[in-house]
Fold:
Amino acid sequence: MKAAIIECSFGIMAFNEENKLIEKVLFPKKPQEAAQTLVKIEAGKMVDEIAELVNRLRKNGYETFVFENASLANEVQKKFGVKVEVSKPSEAGEMLRFSMERFAVETGFVKDAEEFTLWTHNVTMEMAKLRVKGAVEKRDLIITQAIQTLDDLDKAINLFMGRVREWYGIHFPELDRLLDKHETYARLVLNLGSKDSFTAEKLEKEEIPK
Structure:
C-alpha cells in the first residue's frame, strides 16, 4: 500500500491513495516549535514527527511513501529502507492545502476558523524569523571562510616569497634589505633578472624611486 505524507502548519498528515486521511501527528500548540520543525522539513531533514508517522504506517501495512520534498524522501529511504516516491505537488498535498482550515478543525487542533487563522499567522511569522536567521548565519559563515582563505593565501605567499628571497639572495643579497614589499621584490626579479640589470634607468622604468 502507498501513503502520501504531507506537512502543514499544524502537523504531519498521511493520506491513502484515495486521498483519505489515515494518520496524523499534530504539533504542540507552540508556534516556535512548529516553525522549527517545518523549516527542518523544508530543508529536507528528518524530524521525529515524520519518523513516528512512517513507523505507524509501516505497522499498518504501508510500504511506499510519497513526499513532495526529494531530499526528505531520500532521508526516509535511507533511515527506514522503504520505497519512496516524489510528487510535487502531490494530489494529497494540493487537497490538504485547499482545505487546511477544515482539517485543522476536524482533527481537533483548533476549534474554529478564527483560531486557525491566528495560529497560521504566528507559525508563518516564526518561520520567517528562522529563515532570516539562517540566511544571516550562512552569510557570516561565508565571510568567515573568505577571511580564513585570505589568511591561508597570505601565509602561502609569505612562505613562497621567503624561498624566493633565500634563493635570489645568494645572487643579490643586498636586494632583500632594500625591498620590503614582496610584490615589488618578485616583480623586479622577474623583469630584471640578473643583478647587473638593476641599473638606474631600468629601475626608473619599473617605477622604483631613486
Observations:
- DSSP finds nine helices and five strands in the chain.
- Strands lie at 2-8, 11-15, 21-26, 64-67, 83-86.
- The longest strand covers residues 2-8.
- The CA atoms of residues 138 and 153 lie 22 Å apart.
